[in-house]
Amino acid sequence: MLQEKASAVTDDGMTRVQPGGEAELVPDPSRLGQSTASSIPSGNEPDQNIENIKVVLHERELWKKFHEAGTEMIITKAGRRMFPSYKVKVTGMNPKTKYILLTDIVPADDHRYKFCDNKWMVAGKAEPAMPGRLYVHPDSPATGAHWMRQLVSFQKLKLTNNHLDPFGHIILNSMHKYQPRLHIVKADENNAFGSKNTAYCTHVFHETAFISVTSYQNHKITQLKIENNPFAKGFRGSEEGDLRVSRLQGKEYPVISKNMVRQRLISSHSHLAGKLGAGVLTGHPQVLSSYQYETGGHLSNSDPQDPLSNHFPQTRDPGLLYHCFKHRDNARHLELGCKRPYLETSAAVSEDHYFRSPPSYESPLLSHPYCTEAITSREACMYGSMETESGSGDTDEPNPPSLNCNMWATMQPYPRYSVQTVEGVPYQPFTAHFTNTATVTSVVPHPSPSMTSRPQADLGVYNSATAQRGLPVIPPSSSSSSSSQPVPGSRDRSTHPPLYHRKPGSPLRPHRDFSAYPAQSTMSIRDPSYQYQMGLSSAGTHWTDS
DNA sequence: TCCCCTGGCACATTTGAATCGC
DNA sequence: AGCGATTCAAATGTGCCAGGGG
Questions:
Q1: DSSP states of A244-306 as a string?
Q2: Are A131 and A386 in contact (CB under 8 A)?
Q3: CA A408, CA A461: separation in Å to the nearest integer?
Q4: Going by C-beta distance under 8 Å and a sequence separation of 6 or more, which residues neighbour residue A466?
Q5: Using the 8-state DSSP alphabet, how is residue A95 labeled?
Q6: I need a labelling partner for A337 at 20 to 30 A (CA). Which of A51, A121, A124, A273 fits?
Q7: Cβ within 7 Å of strand C: which of A 449-508?
Q8: Are A115 and A71 in contact (CB under 8 A)?
């Protein structure tokens, strides 16, 4: 079925799916100097150019270096930036059309990893996925000219392992593999985000996959970070990362860190060298399109160098792309579960916050308005959706200021989650969840036995204020972000983001653009049924299944 | 005992307000 | 008064480490 409707695939594995269901051939992104980005345009305006948008990963070579070593990203309770930071160069946009750029980070597979013998190995089943969140670029929405004018940087994005993170950081599980994704949503006035005409595309750069850690496991990664991250300059200097420590401790001899000892011991006894280049990656890429979910097929990786290329499905069904939403109700079978190290401290965050009783799977993210304190910051607009539900009072901010950023709830797609496709179902436009609880709830999938322990919250577009007022609010632009006001008495701008104030004249009035969402057409941008990812590699060179 | 996480630390960079000169 | 350049303290980001908990 899906295969029959599959779009044409280019000889390089790159496929374009026309909104109308037709496929067109596009150049191999790698040949264009792009990373293995994939996009699946959506919407019903074939003459619009969202399907022609090209995205190039900035500092791809650096990303590759990390990828080859097995990228690790530190996650902390307070939130940690990614390094390398996620920056892209976008071309092919309509200069006058407004777009929203956002990223999310989804599990790359359903494994938990451990660093053993100087390589990553599967250590078991993944913890239940964290509530998905999106990071909306603070410039959003902005015209294509704006996006194409310069690099689009998501460097302010922060990762946390705090399940109750109130700051909108992207919540991840430690020792799990993740894949960042970029979504481009057309949001011009005639094609308001969430309207029937909404078009979007998703780009995935396989070399940006990483394993989240609370402390670096691979010394190679540590060194790469120190060498390349300006903020880590203090640890530079020959072997002197260690020498510095020794100086600090008033010792004449280098102090070898515990980690280094471990690394070096391991190195000396392992066959790392042989494995490094082997590309032994069996952690299956799981941030995959609905096609894979549906067909179990594999999409070819557009990156010919990626050993996992042939793990990706090549078929894509534009029809599925457009109408999956309702199918999800029947097809997404979830068993909610969640590691909750922080939940236990909060009575308000009850179990059912994470464990919704089937069959009416209801994402806690979506069923409970995000209503914590303002999570907006000067730059970051990361929107969560789950933390506060009815227990919003548990946050540190007793009186949450109104939130002017959108809240985005995301879900973590896993390939094994099947998405039942019903042919003939009308196209369901991409609809951001600037909706109230009821609306969101109405569209979340129901659990099924085929899906286990994977809370798949809808990728809703949430705004705390919106959730409370029922009015959607658009993310602030970066220009307006500079006008943000710090929280009085707050030293930590990251942990106490200032309220956000949109400058007059900022593009797109939120209410105009987002208030008219058809409640019943809400869908998830991260709903695998709406995702088309190609060339997604799940791991670095020595991320291996046991 | 091992693994993982947390909080504190020192250092470097970034940011923005204050100051100065034109 | 307005503008741009400079200075400097505060804020922020970073990896390392000791210690704690499961």
A1: HHHHHTT-SSPPPPHHHHHHHHHHHHS-HHHHHTTT---S------HHHHHH---BPPS-TT-
A2: yes
A3: 4
A4: A406, A407, A434, A472, A473, A514
A5: T
A6: A121
A7: 491-494
A8: no
Protein CA A526 to sugar C1' B16 (Å): 38
DSSP summary character for residue A76: B
How far, in Å, CA of A237 to CA of A227, rounded?
A: 9
Q: Rounded to an integer, what distance in angstroms lies between the CA atom of residue A295 and that of residue A316?
A: 10
Amino acid symbol at A283:
G
Q: Can you name the residues that pair with A354 across neighbouring β-strands? A: none
Does residue A95 carry a pLDDT above 60?
A: yes
Q: Which of residues 77-96 of A touch strand C (CB under 7 A)?
A: 80-81, 83
Q: Which residue has the higher pLDDT, A485 or A319?
A: A485
Tell me the average pLDDT across A355-383. 32
Token digits for A479?
A: 């220009």
Answer whether A130's CB lies under 8 Å from A163's CB.
yes
The mean of the pLDDT values for chain A is: 52
Nearest CA to A502 out of A142, A170, A152 is that of A142
The pLDDT, as a whole number, for residue A138 is: 87
Distances in Å between the alpha carbon of A225 and those of A59, A127, A265? 14, 27, 21
Q: Helices in A94-200 by DSSP H: which ranges? A: 144-149
A251: left (phi over 0), alpha (psi -120 to 50) or beta: beta
Q: Is A48 left (phi over 0), alpha (psi -120 to 50) or beta?
A: beta
Residue at shortest CA–C1' distance from C22: A341
Mean pLDDT of A108-130: 89
Helix (H, G, I), strand (E, B) or coil at A219: helix
Cβ atoms of residues A472 and A463 within 8 Å: yes
Supply the DSSP string of A312-379, one letter for each residue. B-----HHHHHHHHHHHHHH---------TTGGG-TTS-GGGT-PPSSS---HHHHS---SS----SS
Structure tokens at A7: 């779009």
**Separation between the CA of A503 and the C1’ of B9 (whole angstroms):** 40
| Contact assessment for residue A419 and residue A446, using Cβ atoms and an 8 Å cutoff | no
Distance A482 CA to B22 C1' (A): 28
- Please give the protein residue whose CA is closest to the C1' of the nucleotide B16: A482
The one-letter amino acid at A262? R
Residue A322 Cβ < 7 Å to strand C: no
What is the pTM assigned to this prediction? 0.55
Assess whether A420 (CB) lies less than 7 A from strand B: no
pLDDT reading at A217 higher than 50? yes
Side-chain-side CA neighbours of residue A96 (13 Å): 3
Residue A116 pairs in a beta bridge with A119
Nucleotide nearest to A341 (CA to C1'): B5
Q: Are A48 and A186 in contact (CB under 8 A)?
A: yes
